[in-house]
Amino acid sequence: AGTVTTGIVSALNRPVTTTDQSTDPNAQTSADPVVTNAIQTSAAINPGNSGGALVNASGQLIGINSAIASLGSSDGSSTQSGNIGIGFAIPVNEARSIAEQLISSGTATHPYLGVSSKDGLVADGSAKRSAAVLTTVVAGTPADKAGLHVGDAIIAVDGNSIDGSLSLVAQVRERNVGDKVTLTVLRAGQSMSLTSTLIAKPATTP
User: Fold this and answer.
1) Do residues 189 and 130 lie in contact, with contact meaning Cβ atoms separated by under 8 Å?
2) Do 63 and 39 form a contact (C-beta atoms < 8 A)?
3) What phi and psi values does residue 114 have, to the nearest 5 degrees?
4) Which residue in 169, 156, 170, 163 sits closest to 38, CA to CA?
5) How far is the C-alpha of 25 from the C-alpha of 180, rounded, in Å?
6) pTM here?
7) Are 37 and 15 in contact (CB under 8 A)?
8) 3-state SS of the chain: helix, strand, coil percent to 5?
9) Is-contact 205 199, C-beta < 8 A?
């Protein structure tokens, strides 16, 4: 009854935003989109395969299939729709962390840095690069305690490149509460490294 398809892992750390697609009128939905620092694969993932295993050639679990890229149009004029051959999976370490929390306590916490950001193009020496430019730093949060300021441009988290706001959210969400992260920041054209310890996201925080 089971099937398996093959493909390649074409990208890591690919920020993917998904929203609740439930058609149940009684289901509780969240207005916040879910951002995943996903594994991108060409292995065929179709509706109904969500939650399935993404494994390597040795059968080792590397991710949990969660989403597909599709083409479509809000006005219905598009001639193409459905799976376009790109699928996304939640990395196994992130899935394991959430699963262990749910098994032990019935709830899961998510890491929180305490900033809002926007996509930006900033000077890095004589060149320019994409970054997540901070628009808000919440007082008393890990970001504030690390010394981040509004206008700072985050270009890396633990050495992983950040090219925009969504990329920053995905990198933070991938980690666990209590993790220490090293943020590479450009401030007035100067690069610096700041260390922050992530806390649990407050329930009332948007």
Assistant:
1) no
2) yes
3) 100, 35
4) 170
5) 40
6) 0.75
7) yes
8) 15, 45, 45
9) no
